[in-house]
Design goal:
about 230 residues, alpha/beta, four-stranded parallel sheet, 7 strands
Length: about 230
Amino acid sequence: MKTIGLIGGMSWESTAEYYRLLNELTRERLGGLHSARCVLYSVDFAEIEELQVQSRWAEAGVTLAAAAQALEAAGADLVLICTNTMHKVADQVEAAITVPLLHLADATADAVRASGVRTVGLLGTAFTMEQDFYRGRLEAGGLAVRVPDAEGRALVHRVIYEELCLGVVREDSRAAYRTVIEDLVAAGAEGVILGCTEIELLIGPEDSPVLVFPTARLHAEAAVQAALSVPGC
């Protein structure tokens, strides 16, 4: 099995889920006591979040690119950015390394298309829902993307940063997300992308009348597949 490099800490709550998923999926594939070969570079999310708010994306990209280089130096054969939002600097990170960067939006789009869904709702941070770096990549992959209205986007974003990134899971927030999902379905969504890795701490298949696509899990599944299918593994 090849070694998977993880750029994590954004937030560590969801990065912990990545680690669990990678190991569970590896054990499912290989059996016995097998676990994933992986290395983790965990950044200080407070520093990254400040750069996000100030739109200093290039500086954030420098930090993540350095993390990716450290992972490659530590033996990583492929690299994952364990957050949807910071794929805004994915090109900058990819250019800094010689091993593949497994893009989260691509793994998600593959899963959506495989399900037969073509119109999806997208939940995530305001950056992910409103900017083109993520939505545009999904649309380039043949998907039609719907996002919540301004009030819904503000609610989804607030819950991510003020609750989920701090490990807080509230039933009233789950109910509010369910309402946002229902509105997306009414607007034509045939499935809903949980486009922030923390959302999977709050929302599951039982909370939606249509398919949900949990991006952290899909990313981890794609990573294990890639790590096990490389010649010589």
